[in-house]
């Protein structure tokens, strides 16, 4: 099992997990999703700076001036969370204090970091 953690895991409008993790089995399937207990065992967890998403975000020119989570909310509607790691993406490269969509963010498939 591998565990990948990030500042946020964005699953849907109503499910944003701060200090979240994905636990991935040997076949690449997601075995668990949750929030890290910073007082408990975190050995073997790979930490990534950014937001893990269950879809590839794309920012239009108009969206690039809007709040990041507002844009993600509109893009996530009707999308089920994937059951394998290759369906997740990492939005990274800019401080999360800068929550403007498209403002220097980089997007990569999560399986590139596993």
Which structural category do the helix and sheet elements fall into?
mainly beta
CATH class: Mainly Beta
Classify the beta-strand content into a percent band.
35-45%
Low-confidence runs: none
**Shape type:** globular
Helix content: under 10%
Walk me through what this model shows:
The longest helix has 9 residues, at 68-76. The N and C termini lie close together (11 Å). Helices cover 8% and strands 39% of the residues. The protein is built from one helix and six strands. The mean pLDDT is 84. It has one domain (2-112): Urease, subunit C, domain 1. By secondary structure, the chain is mainly beta. Strands 3-2-1-4-5-6 form a six-stranded mixed β-sheet. It has one helix spanning 68-76, and strands at residues 2-12, 15-24, 30-35, 45-53, 89-92, 106-109.
Give the SSE layout:
Elements: E1 2-12, E2 15-24, E3 30-35, E4 45-53, H1 68-76, E5 89-92, E6 106-109
Parallel strand pairs: 1-4
Antiparallel strand pairs: 1-2, 2-3, 4-5, 5-6
